[in-house]
Amino acid sequence: MGVGGFFGNMPEEMKSGSHLRRCFGNYYVDDKGYNRHHFLIHDYFIAKMIDQASPCGLVAVITSKGTLDKQNSRARKYFARHADLVKAIRLQRRRNRSKD
After folding, report:
1. Among 41, 44, 65, 98, whose Cα sits 20 to 30 Å from the Cα of 33?
2. How many helices (H) and strands (E) does the chain have?
3. C-alpha distances out from residue 5 to 2, 11, 78, Å
4. Cα distances (Å, whole numbers) of residue 99 to 27, 91, 92, 95, 96
5. What sign results for the dihedral spanned by CA atoms 2, 7, 65, 98?
């Protein structure tokens, strides 16, 4: 079953979602509910998706290595307190790029 079949067969009460693109950078979002956490923009949107997910909902994130590898653990600790990690996959960096 492809992704379309998976979502097509999902009960309506389980369907909700967010979609982000290119929310990276060394700046913050001014949101009174999250300002005290001092999240960079990418971490802010991940935290916001987690907080807005339905109980027992699923949040899927494709992100750069910066999310889990950064020195400051503040965002990771927030994610761990507010959600259960189901799976994390580290994609291999392509070593042999074809020359077109």
Report:
1. 65
2. 4, 0
3. 5, 12, 33
4. 36, 21, 19, 12, 9
5. positive
Distance between CA atoms of residues 41 and 70, nearest Å: 14
The answer to whether the CB of 75 falls within 8 A of the CB of 47 is: yes
**Tokens coding 40:** 């960079």
Side chain identity at residue 46, one-letter code: I
What band does 81 get if pLDDT is binned at 50, 70 and 90?
Answer: very high
Residue 41: pLDDT over 70:
yes
Name the token pair of 77.
């600790």
Q: Which residues contact 67 (CB under 8 A, 6 or more apart)?
A: 42, 43, 46, 61, 75, 76
pLDDT at 31 over 60: yes
DSSP conformation class of 54: P
Residue type, 64: S
